[in-house]
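hiii, so i know i said id send this last week but things got crazy w the move. better late than never?? heres the sequnce for the chain we talked about at the cafe, plus the structure i predicted for it. fair warning i was half asleep when i ran it
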Amino acid sequence: MLWVALAGPAANMILAFASGILLTSFLGSGFLATAGGAFLGNMLLYSLQINLALAIFNLLPIPPLDGSKVLRGVLPYQYEHMADRLEYYGPYVLMGIIMLGFFTGISIFWIFIGPFVRFFSALFTFGLM
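okay and structure toks below
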C-alpha cells in the first residue's frame, strides 16, 4: 500500500522535474523571447508549479489523501487505532480546512505547500526561477 500511495506524488514530481528541465533549456536558448515561446514558457511554468503543488498536497497525512496511506505504512503497530480514527474523521477535517480557506480567504494548505513549491521550483530550474 505504501508504494502504491507514493506512485501518484512521484509521477507529479517527475512531471515537474521534466517541466523544469525544459523551461531551463528554453530560457537558456532564447526561444522564450518569441510569442510562441512565451506561451510555451508559461505552460511549462504552470506545469511545474501545478505538479509540485499536487505532489505535496497529496503527501499531506489527511485521509483520503495519499499521505495518510504513507503514514499508515510507516506507523508502528501500537498506533494503529489512531490511524483508524483519523481515517474516519479525515475527510471532514479536509473539507473543513478547505471551507475555512474559502470563507476567510486564507489558504491554510498554501501555508504548508507554498515553501515546498518555491524550493522545488528553484531546485528544478537550477535557481533561475
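btw The mean pLDDT is 91. thought thatd interest u
miss u guys!!
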